[in-house]
Amino acid sequence: MSHGSETARQQPRVDVHFDRSHRGYEPGDTVVVRYQVHELDPAHVRGIEQSLAWYTEGKGEEDLGVHFFSRLGERQARETVATGGHFSAPLPPSPLSYEGVIVKIRWCVRVRLFFPGGRDFVSEHEFDVGRIPAARMTSRASA
Amino acid sequence: MRLPRFFGKKRGHRRTGSQAWGSLGEGAFHAVVFCAGLVFGGLLISGVAVPEWRINHDFLPTVCRVVGTGLVRRTVEDPPGAFTATWRPSLRVRYAADGVDRETWSQSRPATGVSDRSVAVDRLSAWPIGTEVTGWYDPADPDTVVLERGYNWWMWLLALLLPGALLALGGSGLVRAIRRWGRSEEALARATPAPGLLASPRGHAPGHPGVPPCDDLVNSPGTVLRYRLPIESPDNWTLMGLGLFAVLWNAVLVVLAINAGFDLAWGRIDWLLLALIVPFLVVGVIGVVHFMRGLFLATAVGTTQLEVSDHPLLPGGRYEVLLAQGGAGVLRDLELTLELEEQATFRQGTDARTERLVVWSSPVATRQNVQLDPGSRYELRTSLTVPADAMHSFMSEHNAVRWRLAVRGTPARWPAFVRVFPVVVFPDSSRSLHREQTR
Predict the structure, then answer these.
(1) Most CB atoms closer than 10 Å: which of A33, B7, B58, B258?
(2) What is the pTM of this model?
(3) Does the pLDDT value for residue B197 go beyond 50?
């Protein structure tokens, strides 16, 4: 049986633990992330990308800004799948998390696993930067 | 072999695969464009450039005696059912090539053809039977002889430009697709931050990712306060577009009218042309009237200026503002508001559309029955406070959160107007730093 068909049957799970249980950070804080990959044979991993990024959501096309990025090669990735991984990065002053009406800005941690044949699996975990209240349309603003 | 999946969940845990298909499709499209450029370029080079080059470099000179003249007729069916003919002079010449006397019709460029047969006949009179002219024959095929040399420069330009554009478009797209192949969106975003539709060419403010720079907003000093804010006037662009339309439309109308005038002067009446001119005239007049009305309204109210005591603004900050309104007459209402606008650009089919929505608005000052004096500007000095929990200004490729000061007025005799002055609100990093120090 080929590696590809084995990987196709597997549905990995990535558990991410932030150093703050409420996942709320301020600009300049350092985000410390630990993660565990479950239900995946380490032999099937070709690489891991771990990133700290913001993206936009809403009516417009999605924009993505990557603040922290690192890629683990095959050997390191297999060790990480077996024993767990971690990384940390200080947050920039902006952008802050924002819950607008047609524009939303979200921060997230992404762990992307790469398999043979170029396929990948990504696990995304949101957190908040800053404490901006959600935008609510007032009758005056909408008029 | 297993093919990548077309779709994956957008958020949370997901397998992805659509990127591979996307890159493959993009690469295939650009490969086709690149190949089309190669084929088109090859055809133009082999069919036009190489023969012309050979005539000018390889063909050998000889003396040709004209022994006969004729016309070459070329008939083209365009559009279907309608035939047009062009006439090209051709000479039958006798010459010596490789020590052998030969007689053949000379070759000439297709571009020398004319649609009027009598003109082509007149041209033949330049070569009476028995005259001797210089010719050049092909050493590889001595029966091929030409009586003129030179380059058809527009054809060379065409041969370079069209295939060159296809090759450049296809080649660059192919290289981009190859570079993207197998790379995640995070790796791509990290490697090449995309230049944005909305994003400023200078990116973001130093040290503040995603926050637009405010250099253009602080380069004009105020008369009373520190900075005079530039006005954002989409209405002016609309007015300029309307003016351009009116000018172009009426230019076409003038050309049609001149043609109709010449016809009338020659005693002919082209009813189709006259029927076309009437609706053109109506649209032209409506365009001019709309433009003049817009221009009058834009200039009738008088200029609006806004000055602030500091910039960029910070959440929780209090700033002095000076509103100066020029013009004459009475304004029933004059209102200054601080607003937060969200802007999203998205694709709808092949169009890129932008939606704007004011999600927060707070009045800064309101005045009623304002008397404007043509000799001096009306000034309103007040202050505004940015909410302490305000979102900072944000701008990315397709999305923006923008702060602005809006001046709304209702003149007694004219329609209401709105004038918008963008401002930039930075995140309150000073508060965060203070919190860090006291932790």
Answers:
(1) A33
(2) 0.71
(3) no
